[in-house]
Amino acid sequence: MNNTSILSTRNLCVGYEKKQVLKDLDLDFYPGKFVSLLGPNGAGKTTLLRTLSKHLPPLSGKITIHGKDLSLIRSDDLARIMSVVLTQRVAPPLFRVYDFVGMGRYPHTSWTGRMNSQDDDAVMESLNLVRAQHLVFRDLSTLSDGERQKVLIARALAQEPAIILLDEPTMHLDLKHRMEVMSILQGLCREKGICVVASLHDVEVAAKVSDRVVLIKDGMLHAFGSPEDVLQEDTVSDLYDFSNACFNRMLGNIEIRNRADKARVFVIGGMGSASVLYRLLSKKGYEVITGVLLKNDIDYFVARSLGIQCLVQDSLDIISSQSVQGAVEALKACDFIIDTGFETAGLNRANLDLITTALALKKPIFCMGSPKNREMLNRPDLSDVWFTKTESRLVDLVEEKEIA
Ligand SMILES: Nc1ncnc2c1ncn2[C@@H]1O[C@H](COP(=O)(O)OP(=O)(O)OP(=O)(O)O)[C@@H](O)[C@H]1O
């Protein structure tokens, strides 16, 4: 790794004439690294990017590029080191993509602005890098948001910068283009050694693509480091003031917690068989209790993120009859029982006792799969047992039963 930072800040304070937005920023940006700026609306991401790119003077503190004070760097010299992609939707009409990307060559062309063959090559290479070479003769104003975003990045690349600053590069883009733009930016870091600094709203994506994340909120830097270290569940909740959501560090996703205002359902699951049902039941407003789960089960991680009450086996051992007894008490207090059709291996066999108990208690039981996989439920005389093949049908059945 190249250990010399391209861009650094010390005691930087950014904002506007009458308004300080962020203070005490000590940041270093290195070649080949993807850095995401994260923070709630109005935290100061754009203000910071505008200050780093010399569009806005710092209120105090220092910004250096390759060790030189930013304020002393001439704008044409800066353009050879840094390019900036700010949020913009408007495109001037009658502007060919080729000419627009060619504008990015201005730090390298002579004062006449005439492009030579090297500049032509640079324009085409930039378009290639963002997989937009086919757009070269299109009118800019006719492009879709995703195509235009790629062209904006191509123009930034045509400057041949060491660092690119982008403000919300995936705004207005659909999922496919969002992923494509992120993968293009990641490729620029890995293959061209460019440092990419982008403000992002999607913490899940940031966790997956970034080498470093900068967390800002309430006028200050909250954390700066690798997403694996920094994006802890509590930190993300605090950053965005989550009250009904939770970032799951292990799965790298955000689960939404819904208010439970329906019946209480006990889910007998495990080994990943219950996660989809947990989400669906929570979404529908059911109060879910589940168990007995081992602490390394993916169902446990999903249930915890959803705020579902989990009965867990303390040690990573065989689920004990003692743990199952604890779960029986919780099961008694539930209106409906769901058997996810979990595979029974040695470790979780005891959970079958929960199904037997539910039968004895004459609780309505809804099962995924087929009766032949569940010996104790494979009897024609059982009236309060239903089998389905999909989670959505199963929850429909629960709803029907609840209404009846
Ligand atoms: N020109 C300006 N003059 C004064 N205050 C401004 C100006 N532009 C933005 N602000 C304020 O500065 C603060 C930071 O705004 P900024 O746009 O940097 O936040 P952000 O993190 O980029 O927000 P978002 O995620 O909503 O885009 C906000 O309180 C905003 O109202």
Task: Tell me about this structure.
Helix content is 34%, strand content 24%. With 404 residues, the protein is an alpha/beta fold. The model has no long low-confidence stretch (mean pLDDT 92).
Summary, kept brief:
The protein is an alpha/beta fold and 404 residues long. Helix content is 34%, strand content 24%.
Which descriptors would you attach to this protein?
single chain, 404 residues, alpha/beta, Rossmann fold, 2 domains, six-stranded mixed beta sheet, six-stranded parallel beta sheet, 14 helices, 18 strands, elongated, binds adenosine-5'-triphosphate, ABC transporter, ATP-binding protein, ATP-binding
Strand order across the largest sheet: 6-7-8-3-9-10
Provide the helix percentage: 25-40%
CATH level-1 class of the largest domain = Alpha Beta
Bound ligands, each once: adenosine-5'-triphosphate
CATH superfamily of the largest domain: P-loop containing nucleotide triphosphate hydrolases
> Which fold name corresponds to the CATH topology of the largest domain?
Rossmann fold
Question: Kindly, what is the distance between the CA atoms of the first and last residues, rounded to a whole number of angstroms?
Answer: 65 Å
How many distinct helices?
Answer: 14
- Rg over C-alpha atoms, rounded to the nearest angstrom: 28 Å
Summarize the main sheet: 6 strands, mixed
How much is the average pLDDT? 92
